[in-house]
Design a protein that fits this description.
single chain, alpha+beta, two-stranded antiparallel sheet, globular
Amino acid sequence: EAMSPAAFAQKSDQRASCIHAAPYQGAFVAQEIHEALEEISAVLSARQIDHSLVLGFEAEAHVAVQRASLLGPSAALHDAKDIALLWGSPVHYISDGTSEVALPRLSPAARFQVSLLRTLRGFEVLVVPHWRWPWKASPEDKVNRLLELLEEAPSR
């Protein structure tokens, strides 16, 4: 379903305020993950990038992206894996708390989900950190952020 840029931005702002105002427990975390993945899916749809929102799988909810839709025909030549985008909510990260400059790292449970998607589906997995998502940006800027995160991700 097509959405005007103004309507897209308004819906994005509504999601951002809802997600960031909720306490991160139980159902609220599930809601945050679902809405963030819907946002990512809408951004990819706006750029006509082939993907699917996967909510009922053995692993955590994710967006499955066909690498060829991002890289074109060269992806098939390089036998590039498709990509699973996971939302990295605050509960997906831990920190040792000893340094203000230390970046949070994935929790053991989040690392397990990444491994599960790699093993079961053969995906390259990218966790989108909640603090790096540009909620109020344009759809084009959001796609660019995803591409930047993909470029920064180490190849597995």
